[in-house]
Amino acid sequence: MGKPANRVPKPWGVLATRPPIWPAFRGGLRSEAVTARVGRLLGIAFGLCFVTGLISHYQYSPWSWVPIPSAPAWGYRLTQGTHVVTGLVSVPLLITKLWSVFPKLFQWPPVRSVVHGLERLSIAILVSASIVEVGIGLLNILNWYPWRFSFIDVHHWLAWVVIGSLLLHIAVKLPVIRRGLAAALEQPPAPSLPDDELTDLDAPQTGISRRGVLIASGAGAGIVALTTAGQSLTPLHPIALLGVRDPQRAPLGVPINRTASQAGVRALATAPNYRLRMIGPKPFDLTLAELEAMQGVRRSYPISCVEGWSAGARWDGIQLMDIVRRMGGTVDSRVVLSSLEPDGPFKRSLIFGPELHAALLATHLNGSRLTIDHGYPVRLIAPNRAGVFNTKWVSRIELVG
Amino acid sequence: MRTARWLLAALGIAMLGYGIWRIFQFSAATQPRHLGSWLIAALILHDGIFSWLVVGIGWLLGRFVPGRARAYLQGALITAGLVALVAAPMIYRQGRSQPGQSLLERDYLANLAIIVACIAVVTGVAYLMRVRREDRAANVRPATDQTSVR
């Protein structure tokens, strides 16, 4: 964008001379060829993260005329597992990419024209938004929130900022990217700059090669992928050294994100006067004994968390549609389930369409009675549905339309 | 080509603008000022501190580690450093989850040590193989002066 300014225009005259002490990098390890290759991988990772992230966000606010499909049951397991692994892999890729262009931060003059200034501003936005986006994503899967903003909102809207400024960056740099990808990785060392008084901050050429940097950084990204993916990809479980969740160690083989104590339902869920309350054209109540006496079914639905872990599981329970029909609802009903939880963003969840047809009010998980942390006495489970919306400790089922 | 670049740029600017607009629209949830301080802190942390640490380590390696070994040490440090960056918050947060919560149940410091040890073994073996190959080539070639060596 813009022509390289041969002569610095008047208003920028003061910037024509570089300060006497100014960083210079002559290592030759950084090059367009390295940047373009790492950048291509990072671009693919960010693209995958964005698309899978939007799919996940759709779980939070689906349009009534485009219900979430219930098949394949492992759909969300795949997309959200991919989201978290590619997000983790983009940490090493992002660091390598930024390393490869670090000297450009010190280009002189800092700003050549208004257009150049705007381009640098867009890069500043891209860099800082990328670091924050990937960083808060990593902290979120650790349930660590050292900030005051809402993670879900910021992670969603900042993704638009990242991808928007990334597309702008690709548009601006396209000729450079094509040149970099076409260039051979190893080239004879460039002739060193004539100005010898510059401080040489990079190591001399005899160390690692450009190919070596790509291999080392790719190995870092690969190790991160292989040692974290085991929290959803069962064959990789034995080497999940950096897995945040461990399904095989969890009670009944399914990790617990939010315990009954955290939700404040420990006493309510075990109270003898527990009733499941149905609110609709034909309201009724069920005691736990009545609920357990109903005709049950068994389904195998994986449970997949927004934080990337997932586990295959076998559920026994009653079909939610049986209850909805008894309440006077139909397959087209919109149903809201409420938890015993006194308060909280995931106290209630809406279910409709194919997910409703396939949904279960589960009483058993992998052959055992639900534990209190798994949602005793009864929890919702539906295929291809984000974990947080599979409401635990269900106390109320309501037809809303 | 030119048209495609302009379209891509326009789409990028539109998405960027949409994101910024939404951040300010939902300011109760996004806390734009607080978020802004995180964004600026990210730049300062990366460009002002982290990158210079990397430059400094590179300079020290160039100064004190001899040529052939340096390439392998650099490679191992890059790989291990990148993995350590992901593992660091896990190590810091380990043991802080609520009782009953299936979260961070592994020993991440020990696991990182295992990964670093594997990286060290692989690069160490690669280095020794190169040393042997080069030493043999250096010893064999002048002594025998035959074409059948390779």
Describe this structure in words.
The complex is a heterodimer of chains A (401) and B (150). Chain A is elongated and about 85 Å long. In chain A, the strands form 3 sheets. A 5-stranded mixed beta sheet of chain A has the order 2-1-12-7-8. In chain A, strands 3, 6, 9, 10 and 11 form a 5-stranded antiparallel beta sheet that branches. In chain A, 43% of the residues are buried. In chain A, helix 2 (75-100) crosses helix 3 (114-141) and helix 3 crosses helix 4 (151-182). The longest helix of chain A has 32 residues, at 151-182. Chain A is built from 10 helices and 12 strands. Chain A has helices at 32-60, 75-100, 114-141, 151-182, 210-228, 260-263, 266-270, 288-293, 320-326, 354-358, and strands at 275-279, 284-287, 297-300, 303-304, 310-311, 314-319, 334-339, 348-352, 360-365, 368-369, 379-381, 394-399. With 401 residues, chain A is an alpha+beta fold. In chain A, a hairpin with a 4-residue loop joins strand 1 and strand 2. Chain B is mainly α and 150 residues long. Chain B has 5 helices and no strands. In chain B, helix 4 runs antiparallel to helix 5. The relative contact order of chain B is 0.05. The model of chain B has no long low-confidence stretch (mean pLDDT 91). At the A-B interface, helix 2, helix 3, helix 4, helix 5 and helix 6 of A face helix 1, helix 3, helix 4 and helix 5 of B.
Please render the helix and strand layout as text.
The complex is a heterodimer of chains A (401) and B (150).
Chain A: H1 32-60, H2 75-100, H3 114-141, H4 151-182, H5 210-228, H6 260-263, H7 266-270, E1 275-279, E2 284-287, H8 288-293, E3 297-300, E4 303-304, E5 310-311, E6 314-319, H9 320-326, E7 334-339, E8 348-352, H10 354-358, E9 360-365, E10 368-369, E11 379-381, E12 394-399
Parallel strand pairs in A: 1-12
Antiparallel strand pairs in A: 1-2, 3-6, 4-5, 6-9, 7-8, 7-12, 9-10, 9-11
Helix pairs in contact in A: 1-2, 1-4, 2-3, 2-5, 3-4
Chain B: H1 2-25, H2 27-30, H3 32-64, H4 67-93, H5 108-144
